[in-house]
Structure formats: C-alpha cells, structure tokens
Amino acid sequence: MNPRTSSLLALFTEGRTRFTLLLDKLTAEDLPKKLTPGPNSAGFIVRHIGDVEMLFSKNVFGLKEVQVHAKTVIAKRDTGEWTDLADLKAYVAQSAATLQRAIEATGDANWDSLVETKEFGRKTKAEALGRIITHTAYHAGQLAMVMKYGSP
C-alpha cells in the first residue's frame, strides 16, 4: 500500500476507536435510550454512522458495487426500528470494512482529486476522509452521552 494511503488508513482506524470502544459496551437496553428532548435513540445513532460510512464508500470513494439503503438519511428522523443489537453491530462492522476497502483502493495520487456532493460541496478525497472521520467521532460523542444519561 502507498505511504499516504497507509497513513490515512491508520488515521481512519484510530479516529473510529471512539465509536468502536462504545460498541463493546453497548447493550440492547441502551438502544431505545434518548436524551430528552432529543429525537434520536442510541440505536438510530449507530445505524446512522453505518449508513453514512456506506454512502461515503460508494459516492465519495467510488465503490460502485456497494449497495446501500441509508434509512436514517432518507427518513431524517428516528423511526424506532433500530432495536436489534446484533444486527446493528454487524452493519457497522460491514460499513467500517467497506470504507476501509475504499480507502485502501485510493492511490496516493488520488487523495488530491476533487469530489463534490450536495451535502458538503467540493473537497479533495483527503478532506472528505476527514469529514467522515469527524462525523463518526461527533456521533460517537452523542452515543456516549445517550448511553450514560439517556432513558427509554
């Protein structure tokens, strides 16, 4: 693997640990918890992280074979259906592996190529990687608060 790609992959892996460490502690009882008056449950947050990682893999990093139905992005609200812990953990494991594959497939020279989305405009692929890393960390912080202080 190219040096820049290898470094950015390490950054992604380390940046995601805030989330993965929470997943080890997450219980089925945590999934319906919310912080009142906040609208999103712990289960929704976990699913949303996976949905956005899958979308980035396909739309930003170009893995066209990725099939994603980003229910949390489409619904734009918590529908209450994110209650299966094993399913959620499997989904975010898949989203991480898919995004890792997308990162690994990006050659060093391609990190400076531009991508454009309606959500964040024009960015280099390196900047877009920063965006998904901080997106996951942002929601991991929310998840930690919901797990600690939330109620069903």
Tell me about this structure.
The protein is mainly α and 152 residues long. It has one domain (3-149): Up-down Bundle (Four Helix Bundle (Hemerythrin (Met), subunit A)), CATH 1.20.120.450. Helix content is 60%, strand content 5%. The protein is built from 6 helices and 2 strands, in the order H-H-H-H-H-E-E-H. The chain has helices spanning 3-15, 17-25, 42-60, 71-75, 85-104, 125-149, and strands at residues 114-117, 121-124. It has a two-stranded antiparallel sheet with strand order 1-2. A hairpin with a 3-residue loop joins strand 1 (114-117) and strand 2. Helix 1 (3-15) runs parallel beside helix 6 and helix 3 runs parallel beside helix 5 (85-104). The longest helix is centred in the C-terminal third of the chain and has 25 residues, at 125-149.
